[in-house]
Amino acid sequence: MNLADYIRDIPDFPKPGILFKDITPLLASPQAFGHAVDQMAAHYESHAIDAIAAAEARGFLIAAPLALRLNKPLVPLRKPGKLPYRTYSLKYDLEYGSAELQMHIDSVTPGARVLLVDDLLATGGTMAAGAQLIQQAGANIAGFGFLVELAFLNGRERLPQAAVYSLLTY
Questions:
Q1: Which active-site residues does the annotation give?
Q2: Please, what are the domains in the chain?
Q3: Is the pLDDT of residue 94 over 80?
Q4: I need a labelling partner for 56 at 20 to 30 A (CA). Which of 62, 87, 110, 117 fits?
C-alpha cells in the first residue's frame, strides 16, 4: 500500500505560498491508517521506549494508536489550561509567534525513554519544545516518529540528537 496516495495536497493553506499536506484522507481509510500505524509499530517494537508523547491535536491521532499497539503509556503535551493536574510548562517561539506546551508532572519518571510522535515534521519547533519539556521532567528522548516529513524545511536540525523516523518524506 502506498501511503502517499492518502496524503492530499492543499495549495495556499493556511496562507498563500504554503502547500499543506492533509492527512484526513489517510484517517478516513481504516486500512491505510491501520497500515501506517502498523509500520510505525513495527519500526519501534524493538526500541527501548518507556512512553510515547505527542503534542495536541494531530499528534494524538498517530501517537494514541501507536501507544496501544506498543503497549506504552501515552503522554499528552497540551496547550495551557487543558490539563487538570500540576504541570511542567514550556514557552517557545514559532515562525509566526509563540506557543506553550504543558504536561502533568507525573507523566514521565526521571530516566524514562520517551518517543515523541507527531503527524508531520515541518520546521521542528513544536517537537523541539516537546523534547525540552520531556527533558525538564528528567526523562530522555528515545527518538522522534512522524507520519510525514517535509525535509526541505530542515526540521531535523532543530531537534535534539536522537533518531528521527518518518514514513513519508517530501
A1: 58, 95
A2: 46-169 (3.40.50.2020)
A3: no
A4: 110
